[in-house]
Amino acid sequence: MLAGLHAVAAEPRPPVTPIRADKLILVGDSTVSVHSGWGGSFCNRHVTSFLACVNLARGGRSTYNYRAEGSWEIVEREMRGGGYRHVYVLVQFGHNDQPGKPGRSTDLAREYPDNLRRYIDDIRAAGATPVLVTPLTRRQFVDGTLVDDLTPWAQAMRQVATQARVPLVDLHARSTAAVQALGPVGAMQFAQRPPSPELVAAAQGGTTADAASMPATGTTTATPTARAAGNTAVEPMGQAKLAFDYTHLGPAGADFFAVIVADELARAVPQLRAQLVP
């Protein structure tokens, strides 16, 4: 009987086909990072088990200070980690490159596009594939029209992508159209926390109100300028505070925009299509 067992164990096994998975690295600010952006939902729900998804986005970062603080060094090590067939790096910056953010802001005409080109060069030098992602829109309105203050940064990124022949996920265009269609009240569902009744009342009039600009009495008499100015103020470094605002995303917002990113990425990088979940 033992001889029979040995005979069974000695039977040759069919060859095992090696698994060659790909890696996707997310780089950006709080609108990409976990708990405040679309990146967590994207990695959790929109990639197959053959695509490793690493979210290295950090709140409050721009094309300048993400590199200056050393975060980019972590990305470079991740890019060069062995065992993956292909490595793709998605880069989304813009919110903190805008003026008014000391230690973060960059010059739109030269520094911002030059920083993007340097990221592209570094990614290619590491043997990885760069993919640029235009910045997610904010969700403030004046008289029913979305305050689209990130258009210049999105356009600058599009130009860099064209010049450097880099795949582009135009999240800004898709998110702007979606938020405008939802309107000021409908878009409130994407925030990290529910809006107050006063904020909803202001939005129903077509012009969103920043929570900090609302009068202490709880009325909705804040001026349109104050109502629309909230997200141009300095956004926090590090993890975004769980609160209602018009920039950061709660679970519903993260899920909504992650779907858009997955769809656009499949279009921009067709070789990833089979590893993305719609």
UniProtKB/TrEMBL annotation:
InterPro entries: RhgT-like, SGNH_hydro, SGNH_hydro_sf. Residues 204-226 are annotated as: Disordered. Keywords: Hydrolase. It comes from the Bacteria. Gene3D superfamilies: SGNH hydrolase. CDD domains: Rhamnogalacturan_acetylesterase_like. Pfam families: Lipase_GDSL_2. Residues 27-173 form the SGNH hydrolase-type esterase domain. Belongs to the 'GDSL' lipolytic enzyme family. PANTHER family: PUTATIVE (AFU_ORTHOLOGUE AFUA_2G17250)-RELATED, RHAMNOGALACTURONAN ACETYLESTERASE. This is Rhamnogalacturonan acetylesterase.
